[in-house]
Amino acid sequence: MPVPDPSIARGTGVPAGALTVVPVHGVGEVRPGDDLAGLLADAFTTAGDSGGPTTWVLDGDVVVVTQKVVSKAEGRIVAIDAADPDAKRRLVEAESVRVLRRRGDLLITETPHGFVCANAGIDLSNVEVGTAALLPVDPDRSARRIREALRHRLGVTVGVIVSDTFGRTWRNGVTDVAIGIAGVAGIVDLRGTTDASGRVLEATELCVADEIAGAAELVMGKDRSVPAAVVRGVDPAWLRQGSVAGEIVRDPSGDLFR
Predict the structure, then answer these.
(1) Strand 62-66 to strand 159-168: parallel, antiparallel, or no bridges (unpaired)?
(2) Rounded to two decimals, what is the model's pTM?
């Protein structure tokens, strides 16, 4: 099983202020009912110098896990005839609280989580033919469960992000964002602080959870069968209890476009 560079695994060799993003190999195919945290814990464990097991994930790391494997482990896989556009439309509508836009077989919908995304986040890629992956029921809770299980199994305190691929209004291309978090901030509010010139910031709120998710996706990719990554070097001030639902999802009353 491939393992990270030993200097990274020991927590050395990272310049101050730098981030290190390490792909997690060895998780294998995840199926409904699997113990995802256990699979991750095994992937984080290697043979130590003395021959016994050692854990290369460290306190303060952020573990980013793709929505797809979380949904698989939680049994959020349903049968669907992918060749039948009506079947997909019905499933998308069933997983949405409202449809905002339609164009052909593409629907922009709002999910019960408050996410505005394409086709309710339903994914037909990297699942068995004839099935579709639905979003986790409560991605924040999913992240909390993984975090607590890793703390119990490995004795480490990490942040956990459940990531998914979203498009962006008015911009081409997709990127990964956080749909569930635990032990890491969603938003870092810089309002009232000063920039490098001493000017007071009045509107700057950083969605650091999305930024970390996007960084992790660069080593996970869409076609590499890498379901997780570890981000090391995150500002310790960001490592607090977090919630996508409570911090990142914008209330419709503050939305100019819905």
Answers:
(1) parallel
(2) 0.90
